[in-house]
Amino acid sequence: MPEEKSSVSVMFEPDGKVVSGTSDTLLELALNGNVSLRGECGGAGTCGKCRVQIIRHYGSLNELTRTEEEKLSDDEIKDGYRLACQAKILSGNCTVYIPPGSRSAKREISAVGLDEDVTPEPAVKKIHIHIGKSSFSDIRPDLERLRSELRCPKETEISLGTLTELPKILRKSGWDVTVGMYGNRIISVEPGDTTEEIFGISVDIGSSKVICHLVNLITGETIARANAENPQVMYGEDIVSRITYASRKPENLGKLRRLIADTINFLIDSVCRQSGISPESVYDMVFVGNSVMHHIFLGITPKYIGVAPFIPAVGDLVSFPAKDLSLNMNGEGLVTAIPLIGGYIGSDAVANLLITKIYEQDEISLVIDIGTNSEILLGNSEKILACSAPSGPSFEGAHISSGMKAVSGAIESVKIEDGNVIYRTIDDVKPKGICGSGVIDLVAELYREKIITGTGKFRDLSHPKIKVDGVPEFVIEESFDTGNNGDITITEKDINEFLLAKGSLKTGWTILAEKFGIEPSQIKKVYLAGSFGTHVNIENAVILDIIPGIKRENIVFAGETAVGGAKIALKSVHERRKLEKILEKVEYIELSVEKSFNRRYIRSIPISRDKN
Amino acid sequence: MPEEKSSVSVMFEPDGKVVSGTSDTLLELALNGNVSLRGECGGAGTCGKCRVQIIRHYGSLNELTRTEEEKLSDDEIKDGYRLACQAKILSGNCTVYIPPGSRSAKREISAVGLDEDVTPEPAVKKIHIHIGKSSFSDIRPDLERLRSELRCPKETEISLGTLTELPKILRKSGWDVTVGMYGNRIISVEPGDTTEEIFGISVDIGSSKVICHLVNLITGETIARANAENPQVMYGEDIVSRITYASRKPENLGKLRRLIADTINFLIDSVCRQSGISPESVYDMVFVGNSVMHHIFLGITPKYIGVAPFIPAVGDLVSFPAKDLSLNMNGEGLVTAIPLIGGYIGSDAVANLLITKIYEQDEISLVIDIGTNSEILLGNSEKILACSAPSGPSFEGAHISSGMKAVSGAIESVKIEDGNVIYRTIDDVKPKGICGSGVIDLVAELYREKIITGTGKFRDLSHPKIKVDGVPEFVIEESFDTGNNGDITITEKDINEFLLAKGSLKTGWTILAEKFGIEPSQIKKVYLAGSFGTHVNIENAVILDIIPGIKRENIVFAGETAVGGAKIALKSVHERRKLEKILEKVEYIELSVEKSFNRRYIRSIPISRDKN
After folding, report:
1. Is the per-residue pLDDT at A42 higher than 70?
2. SS3 readout for B323-374
3. Which end of chain A is more exposed for a tag (fewer CB within 10 A), N or C?
């Protein structure tokens, strides 16, 4: 006999999010409700990471499973802990507390940022029509009668998939249908009035993370968000190793493409489930990404982006049918790529322009999006210069002895007071390592406290926090206090790695300023784009010359600019059409061929007292 | 050690066709050269049908195989007979005679007919360009540089498949490429200069036969032809049973669609092999068919064509990418459907208009395309009336006791002289039955010889050729002389079946004439369209009122008008654009709703002396 599923409801604390559904495991319900909950083993019961505490419940849960008896301690069981993948709420409702260690959230993605509000003017239009029934006195074919009711010209195209469904839908609906048009192409015919159901998604395909927002294109409202790791990291953390892998043989490119498409499909599924919308109602997608992600997603080899002169295959605004990209949305809907600026400066940078709107301001602004390759934009309504600074992975916690990504347990901010290191970790759990924003703070503090020189050398190896057995290292936290094995430390080599990275950034914006014909001090506004930017301590970023030293109130945390910029273009074809004009103002500067590059770079590496 | 294949050459008689290739069986060589040769067992050596005679040879053949020793008589072996599937020409060249019994040809498809010559103006244009190599001083993306060299606007689209190949092809070719454009869409980029290689195919999807012509779209020349049975006959000989089958469930429609697509792919493969052309160089396809074949091939249900008021889903000129129809040609090429006139009068009739050009003549012409449903067109440059006459399958030899299709052994013409029946069979072999053209002759002769009355009854059952044990039947040939078991005869019921069919035709053209406001005698020209028409004895057709009685020299055997008309549209976009204007002149007449239909039909069934 099939299991009877009853309607249940769970409140997940501390967020207070309520998820309703049919009887299922807590993990399933959490996933459906986009509640952050770890489940590394995919619910197989092997990782034991999804511990949750049942605070109260009205109704019934299943008995403890054998897996739970193995994975949970007696104390935990006494305190009402369960594994979310095993605990099933059979009826009624309950309140569940998710302890920090069970939250999948690394650092919460900052949704705070620039307002991406624009008047909705979607690319897909829907028209509700009623067609007279066919008869011997009107024997025109279905499509002809449809077109004539729509008053659209004979040249109006229709996709084959829509045409094959047309006769059935017209008759099933009693000749009362809603027609979806993309430009002068009929992409859907649906029974009844569905004019209110036009949804779209904006996607930021990052090298390490993919972010997806679902938008109601009638109201312009963002109705769901989801993000996932970019599984391509299996084939290399950095862009260069992915280019290498993809270029080796055609199958590899196909493999990387499928990974991205699958991830986007997973995210579409997630945002659609969150909001109870059918993926078939998603007619439009606009995506951004660096040039390599952009190419791989479209199935184009990134090989020639990887070798001088770093030429992309396509940089314009291009659109392709969703079905050609095997996306789980309306197959006749379109997928639009935001233009690229150059081989190493992708459409994420263009999204940054769309959202910061520096292209329409008189004052000169600087936009910095920090990553392994950091995109830097400088300009105003007259002209915009763009470059990519190869800042390396140290901002993402890589190539640093105790470095880690910005996930649970990472030290994200540091202060040194009276010789003591004070820090905060993500999720307030025991520290496991240090992430990018923590490194910025740490190096700035070490310099401010005169523990290191401007070139990153320890001044005095007898400092109580410096261990010298072997390579000298500054100890942030000792092993017995960490959630990890071993000390959390930083070495001169680590500091040097970081100085090279931040030097690259400074080189970028100083060369752009020079090219623009201004002093960095003439920059009126700085936008820190991307979620990393929002976690940076501004004072320390200025000390380290990551950004020019301007007034605090003129520095803007722009938030998730990439997906936000894509969303502007998604919501409005008017904004999409602007892109060409905006890009005419942009000039790409290839740093590596600049004569002053080496000189400026060497001068930018040390921490210096005289700013700019 | 792999067998060394040497270059060989075979002339097949009596056609005198020379096929060159590498050492292979004669059957393989014949198939490659599209030489008509039977091979029912597919070359397995079991059917023994592919007997051929080696007339002379320079070079060597393999020894007789054991299979040949079994299948061939001693006399045959002495006369140099071989089985084509066993005999392998190892080197040199030879001349081979194919006796009638080994020819697969049913009746030769008549290629004689109207001249389909038009000035080539293909839909696909190719442009050979040389692009400057990319460098740091020109970092525009590949596509942008391509477009700028082509001087085409930024809106020019490119298919995803072409874009993904672009970077590789540009570099492999040394930036020297040929671009294929379909309208303002880039559909191919090929290395070097391939401007001379633009091929297209025209296809006639008949209910029983599919015909395919390969055309060089630069010269306009037809370079290969192939045809195959429509395998859908498995699901019913007539259109109605295919509509029924396709409407039962969606999988059935898919099954019928695949059968047609597979057949077309087989024919594409065949014409491409004959002419040594890659299917990738076939960029354009134009097809015609009755409404049901048209819909099924596009994957659209024919259900509503089958029920009153017989409405097609689409009747306009529509085009779809070849890849959406899983065709084995250039996937980015387009497949264009010639418009339909109505539910029961398909694009084959439109092709008949294109090729007969009655739409541009002052005099009034009649076009008759005889089949299970016969399309009839009447008109001139002012107006054209069209109808479909449900003439039934007797013209195709069905529903007649000794009836058969027009294949080897069918009696195709008959004369009665001095009480003796004189006939000719297809391929001059022993008779197996009688096909449509034979039935026309036979009935006309029986009437002329006063053996039957005008209503098809035997006047005198004691006639020496009439057998009366059981149902009375006129004996054409007795069993001991036929290649079949049993006599070849015709009964009153058979004759009646035929009279109903021919009556339907006459009803059609008399109603059209009435609607047009003329007497049938005012028709100045009659075009007999389709390959069936070319085998009809004109005098007998006039006696039986299949066509109006006009002067012999004003009756035109129009030949394979359907595939020919499609070819006109294939060769010239100018002609394609004309279609809309031509169709504005056409008015569809639904015979079944005409008041005078029943009266006229009953009057049209008997054979009458007063013509028209």
Report:
1. no
2. HHHCCCCCCCCEEEECCCCECCECHHHHHHHHHHCHHHCCCCEEEEECCCCE
3. N
Per-residue model confidence as pLDDT tens digits over B134-149? 888 888 999 999 999 9
pLDDT digits (tens, 9 = 90+) for B238-295: 788 899 999 999 899 999 999 999 999 999 999 999 999 999 999 999 999 999 999 9
Instruction: Report pLDDT digits (tens) over A278-327.
Output: 999 999 999 999 999 999 999 999 999 999 888 999 999 999 999 999 99
Residue found under tokens 């002068």: A184
- Name the closest residue on chain B to residue A139, using Cα atoms: B311
Q: Which amino acid is at B227?
A: N
CB A546 within 8 A of CB A508: no
Cα dihedral A145, A146, A150, A156 in deg (nearest 10): -100
Cis peptide, bond prior to residue B14, ω within 30 of zero: yes
Q: Are A53 and A79 in contact (CB under 8 A)?
A: yes
Which chain A residue has its CA at the smallest distance from B142's CA? A313
The whole-angstrom separation of Cα A399 and Cα A538 is 23
- Report the alpha-carbon distance of residue B233 to residue B216 in Å, rounded: 32
Distance in Å, alpha carbon of B135 to nearest chain A alpha carbon = 6
For B19, B105, B111, B560, the CA distances from B34, given in Å and listed in that order, are: 9, 11, 15, 19
Q: Which of A135, A168, A314, A345 to mutate to test the interface with B (most CBs of B within 10 A)?
A: A314
Highest mean pLDDT among A76-85, A220-229, A283-292, B152-161: A283-292
Nearest to A607 by CA among A467, A406, A390, A459: A459
Helical residues (DSSP H) of A276-399, grouped into ranges = 291-298, 347-356
For chain A, domains (ranges, CATH) are 7-102 (3.10.20.30), 124-191 (3.10.20.880), 199-337 (3.30.420.480), 357-393+499-604 (3.30.420), 394-491 (no CATH)
Of B136, B143, B318, the CB nearest to A313: B143
Contact between residue A358 and residue A384 where contact means Cβ atoms under 8 Å apart: yes
Q: Which residues of chain A lie closer than 8 angstroms to B141, CB-CB?
A: 311-316, 340
User: B316–A134: do the CB atoms touch at under 8 Å?
Assistant: no
0.90 exceeded by pTM: no
From the list B136, B309, B310, the residue facing A590 with the nearest CB is B136
Residue A610 pLDDT level (bands cut at 50, 70, 90): low
Inter-chain Cβ pairs, chain A and chain B, closer than 8 A: 132
Burial class (CB in 10 A: 0-12, 13-18, 19+), B140: middle
Rounded to a whole number of angstroms, the distance from the CA of B226 to the nearest CA of chain A is 27
CA distance B566 to B213: 10
Residue with tokens 């001379």: B196
Contact A590 B171 (CB under 8 A): no
For chain A, how are helix, strand and coil distributed in percent, rounded to 5? 35, 25, 40
Residues on chain A touching B309 (C-beta within 8 angstroms): 134-136, 139
Which residue reads 């019921």 in tokens?
Answer: B493
Residue A418 structure tokens: 């009276």
CA B436 to CA B395: how far, in whole Å?
Answer: 4
Closest of A206, A204, A211 to residue A228, by C-alpha: A211
> Which region among A104-118, A171-185, B5-19 has the lowest average model confidence (pLDDT)?
A104-118
The half-sphere exposure of A454 on its side-chain side, counting CA atoms within 13 A, is: 13
